[in-house]
Every structure is written in structure tokens, then in C-alpha cells.
Amino acid sequence: MHRLLVRGVVRGAAASIDSSSRWVLPGPKLLHTARPCLSDAGSSGDRRAQSPETSASSAATSSTVDSADKQNKSNSERERSQPTTASTLSDSFGRFHSYLRISLTERCNLRCKYCMPADGVQLTQKQQLLTSAEVLQLASLFVAEGVRKIRLTGGEPTVRKDLTEIVAQLKATNPLLESVGITTNGLMLTRQLVGLQRAGLDALNVSLDTLRAARYEQITRRKGWDRVMAGIDLAIQLGYRPKVNCVLMKGFNEDEICDFVELTRDRNVDVRFIEYMPFTGNRWDTDKMVPYRAMLETIRARYPAFEALPNGPNDTSKAYRVPGYRGQMGFITSMTEHFCGSCNRLRITADGNLKVCLFGNTEVSLRDALRSPGCSEDDLRCLISAAVKRKKKQHAGMLNLSQMENRPMILIGG
């Protein structure tokens, strides 16, 4: 069944889902119906390289064959661990996408200025959102194709009553999945984190843009700073190293840069400064953005020994630390020093659209495909593969991004 549907969606704050805007994927060369072998990558259950039968008449011959077999088996496993450009999750620039972010809801219990317009957003009707079963089905499909890390986002994922169950099911049904994390505003952590840890939660990101209670209310338009701090401390006590995400805005909270550095003195946290990014409704302008290099200058003026740490090949955060401090710092430089060349992330919105780029405004409805009669897993793979292979080399420059229509951040997930 090749009735697979793609939509180019340009959504404003009040845009709604319109199934009449769907159209058929052009170009058969972008589609493939054979399931790629990528789902075998890293699996210890599949052993295609078998030892040859050896003759018992010669111990030396047996040893030689065994040695050759081990080498061939090792080579085979290395080859299977490397994704190819023909795989479902590889784009035309050779980037393999092993990290999936899934938004569980558009609802949130805060109204952060950089995330949500002051007058709110028009939420998608419940029947048009992915069900828990659909979330788990899509997650399993992506894991089979090579995703090894899933992060659950929102909105605010902790407002989902079945969040703990979703985490438990992801861990129980996907043995190849290496990490399940959540991104949260932290308000509900003291109530939910113990249960989430028992369900198998591996990682935790907490959004916190100020260490001052009064300013927290200004940014979020709500109270609760002390509850967030209690949630971070609980996470540390439970053995997590929570990542604390802080969006810096000039004239608002950039005077707290060194306060956040001090947060890492006695707490095992990873504070990450995020450059202010443009999304529909957040009234972005270049005057509000604090560039990464300016942050570094501010920190090194007070902490001359502030040192860089090694980064992984797909890390979006540039890691640093003050020697002797328990925690560390990071900088997410989406605007001034993009990291598109090593991007390994895909996003599924709460209404089931696949976004291959955070700043892209073209989306593909996996929900519509899932709910189409006769849609098979191979059909879904074709749809996903076509979308991934159309991913651009990099996003537009920050001035262009500020003029492009995109979802408000709360409707994207993160």
C-alpha cells in the first residue's frame, strides 16, 4: 500500500490540523519496501556469522579456522553497527538518526515567555493526538530501525497521567533501547520521580531559567520555583545527574550566568545555557539573544580556569567545568554556531507529525498513516525514509529563521 501521505505544514499559533492538505509522495526512487538490516545493529540476539565445521583430524587447522571465524564475526558485527545511506533513518548527507524526541502532550502548567505566546495557543483536539498505544507502536518501529535514545517531551510530559506507564512499556518492550529520558519543568518531580525511576527512567532534563523566585514568576507567569529546586535536589539524591536547561535572554536573566555556575559547585548537575531561539509567538529579536562567546567571556572573567571538556560526536552541548566543582556546564549554540552537520535527532509532535528539523516547517503525518486502513510497517518505513532523506543540510540563518513560520515551541515538543 503506497497511499502514504506527506504534508508540508506551515503552522501559526492558531493553525489546526487539516487532513485535506495531504498529498501523495512523489518519486518512487525515494521509497523502498524492503526492510533494511539496520534493525539488527547492536543486537546480540542475531548471530549471522556461524563457525564453520572443522575437521577433528587437525588441531592446528581447527585453531586457524576458529581464529578466522572470530575475525569474520567481529568484522560482521562492526559492519552491522554502521548505518548505511540506504537505511530508513539515514539522510542524503550521511547523518544517521539514533535519537527520537516524542511529545506526549501540548498542555503545560507554565506559560514561559520564550515558549508560549502570552495569549496561549490553540490546542489540538484530543482525538487528533497520538494515543499511548500509537506512541508505543511508533517508538518500537523507530527502535527497530536504529533509534537508541528516546526523550519524552511536551508541553509538559508530567501532566500525562500515564507517563510512568509509558516509560515502563518503552523499557519493557524495546531491549535495544539504551536510554529513556524526559524533559520537564520540574514542578511535579517530587511527586512523580520515584515512580518514574522504578519504571526505568534513565535521564532527566529540567527547564529552569532563573535562580530567583520572583523572576521565575515573571518568566513562567506562574509560581513554583521552590518546588522545581526541590525536584532537582531529589533527582540528585536518587542518583541522577539532571541537566538544567536555561534559556538566556539579554536584559532579563543574563546577570545570573555566574549564579548558575555556582549551582554546580556542590550539586552534581549539568547546567546548559541555551541561546534564545525564534519560534512563532515568542517575539524573538537579535537584541534579546546572548551569544555563546559572550557567555564564555562573562564566566572566564570570574573563573579564569574554566575549562572545556570532551564532547561526543552527536552532542549538541559544548561541555565545560570549573575545576573542583561537582557539576559541569554546557552551551547549546543553535544560533551562533550551529551543529547541523552532526545532527542525529528526529521529533514526533503530540499530534503525530514527524519533524526532521527543529526549525523546519515541513512535517509528515505519521498519525494519518497509522490510522489509514491497510497501512503496514513497511509503508510507515517508506514514509519515514522519504521524510528523513529530504532533510536539509542545515537550517536557515538566524535572521531568516525569525521570519519563517513555525509552530510555537510548546507545540513542537521540548
What would a concise description of this structure say?
This is Molybdenum cofactor biosynthesis protein 1. The protein has 414 residues and is of the alpha/beta class. The protein has helices spanning 59-81, 132-144, 163-173, 189-199, 213-220, 225-237, 257-266, 292-302, 366-370, 377-389, 398-401, 409-412; strands at 5-6, 23-24, 99-103, 149-153, 179-184, 203-207, 243-248, 270-275, 307-308, 317-321, 328-332, 345-348, 353-355, 364-365.
Using brief descriptors, characterize the structure shown.
two-stranded antiparallel sheet, alpha/beta, disordered N terminus, twelve-stranded mixed sheet, TIM Barrel, 414 residues
Can you tell me the CATH class of one domain? Alpha Beta
Q: Note the total helix count.
A: 12
SSE-based structural type? alpha/beta
Provide the spatial order of strands within the biggest beta sheet: 9-10-11-8-7-6-5-4-3-12-13-14
Strand content: 5-15%
Give me the CATH fold name of one domain.
TIM Barrel
The average pLDDT score comes to 79
**Residue share in helix:** 25-40%
Name given to the CATH homologous superfamily of one domain: Aldolase class I
Secondary-structure element string:
EEHEHEHEHEHHEHEHEEEEEEHHHH
* Extended strand count: 14
N-to-C CA distance: 33 Å
Radius of gyration: 23 Å
For the biggest sheet, the summary is: 12 strands, mixed
